[in-house]
Amino acid sequence: MEIIEAISVPLGVVLTGLILTYLLFGDNPAYKLALHIFIGALVGYSFGIVVQEIAVTLLRDLPQEHLLLVPLLMGLWLLAFKSAPRLSYIGNFAMAYLVGVGTAVALGGALLGTLVPQVVATASALSRNSILDGLLIILGTVCTLMAFNFAVPKRGGAAGAWAWVVGPMAWIGRVFLIFAFGVAFAGALTTFLSILIGRIQYIIVPLVNLLGR
Predict the structure, then answer these.
(1) Residue 3 covered by a domain
(2) Across residues 101-113, what is the average pLDDT?
(3) How would residue 205 be classed by pLDDT, with cut points 50, 70 and 90?
(4) Rounded Cα gap, residues 81 and 86, in angstroms
(5) pLDDT, tens digit (0-9, with 9 covering 90-100), for 130-176
(6) Does residue 39 sit within a domain?
(7) Whole-number Å distance between alpha carbons of 162 and 28
(8) How many domains does the chain have?
(9) Is residue 144 a part of any domain in this protein?
(10) Residues 6+ apart with CB under 8 A from 83
């Protein structure tokens, strides 16, 4: 363990320094070298995880779970035909299946994980102790949705009245969006500064310990 730490700490300091050269010199060979090392390590680690957690597990559980044969065959089908340019169109069937399943899972996750809880939280806002907070939540939700209505006709009659109602609500919704994006940007900036401070400390502490000896 001490040998690993003795190698990893100086290596981490060097790679961090190479990455930070981007702040001083912009895109340079040292930064590209560190970037290539990180990407290569990430790809290798991801490949190892895929082999260990998916391929090995799939082959191990295949005798008990025969349905696992379907994703195995789909993956082999995709790899076999997509690697041959003349037969790549046959692999489109497996690709279409993967895209369809992925889209359905993403859509279901968006509905059940984001939209439905937001609707439930908005509907139950008035049942809480503070009526003012509930009204503010409902107002913010409705006005924010109105802010994305870009096709309001500007003419007389009922359509004009609807545009007169939607316009101020959309403006209020944009104000809510400005505050939301501002808070998100502040959080991202704080996270970036925390990571930067952590990496600087990662460089300084070993140097101080080395010079102290």
Answers:
(1) no
(2) 88
(3) confident
(4) 8
(5) 677 777 888 888 888 888 876 655 555 555 667 777 888 888 999 99
(6) no
(7) 56
(8) 1
(9) yes
(10) none
Higher-confidence residue: 138 or 100? 100
Return the residue matching tokens 């952590």.
198
Q: Which two tokens stand for residue 167?
A: 């316009």
What does the block give as tokens for 153?
């006709």
| Neighbour tally for 137: CB within 10 Å | 18
Q: Say which residues have a Cβ less than 8 Å from residue 140's Cβ, sequence separation at least 6.
A: 173, 176
pTM for this predicted structure: 0.56
**In contact, 169 and 137? CB cutoff 8 Å:** no
Tokens 């006005």 found at = 143
Sequence length of the chain is 213
Q: How many helices (H) and strands (E) does the chain have?
A: 8, 0
**Integer Cα distance of 92 and 78 in angstroms:** 8
Task: At 23, list the tokens.
Answer: 């702040």
Answer yes or no: is 138 within a domain.
yes
CA geometry: angle 110, 112, 117, nearest 5 deg: 105
Separation CA 166–CA 149 (nearest Å): 8
Residue 81: how many CB atoms within 10 A of its CB? 19
Q: Rounded to an integer, what distance in angstroms lies between the CA atom of residue 100 and that of residue 168? A: 40
Q: How far apart are CA 200 and CA 20, in angstroms?
A: 10
